[in-house]
Amino acid sequence: MGLQVRARRILGHGAIPVPALIALLAVSGVLTILNTRFMSVTNLQTIVDQTAIPAVIVVGLTFVVLTGSIDLSVEGVVAVGSMVTSLLVMNDRNDLALGALAVPVAVIVGGGLGLVAGLAVTRLRIPSFLATIATWYIGRGIAELLFGDKAKPRVLDEGFIAWSHPLFLGFSGLVWLAIVVVLFGLLLQQFARFGRYAYAIGGSEETTKLSGIPVRRYRLGAFIFSSLCFALAGAMVTARTGVGAVAAGDGQLFLAVSGVVIGGTLLIGGRGGVLHSVVGVLIMVVIANGMILADVSPYWQQVVQGAVVLVAVIATVWRQRARLRVIL
Hints:
mainly alpha
């Protein structure tokens, strides 16, 4: 009976993103036919490595989206995570050398921005896209203040940089860290109140309130958790590049939101999940990788990626048109 209950929990919200997985297999199959190098071990490792950081980002973003809100602060919080980490590990700008403690501190600082955004949304009733645009720029400004207008702080801590090197089965420590974060997100989603209530809030906020669930508290928690993930991603960028950079999060917002949409997590909340969003990000990375192998112009790459997202949005709206008519 216990296994049956667990199975119902896992499948209850459509936790297995079947359409997204089929799309991933189809895209991979086409790219393999077009270029045999696509399925090489080296290229597959590259794809997984490129997916690690945006996967961590979408784990956090997904919980906000499940509640029916949006968090656009990705790039600002990633920048803060990157700069704070680079200035707390051994570096060429100061005498600080917190080692492994640098990352938790950076993550907590990023979480503070999520707290600000969450309070603005839940207490001041500011629309989430406006509140998080504000914290995006607050984060960007903080990152600029932390030596952002000068040469990038260079990390001298070899142990920290080693996270970007192959650790096990040919994958870097950053990949394994991303896997841990994704698994943690899945556990929160399927087996914790935090995840169940996120679905409930996104499905029907009024009904959830009438059930006695503290909606504001859980929505606030979603924004904080989201920013914690963003800041961790910033620390991962620093481990990969060896520097702290204000531009560490550039391009990550589009990739994250695209992953959410393509994976099947509804932007109106209540449907989808962590695995959906991660598979969506993987699809975007695979498409970008295939175009690079085919030597497609970067400008055309942007056109194709934008078109893919547009098609995914149209398909999602078409499938959910009855529900959308009720909401609108």
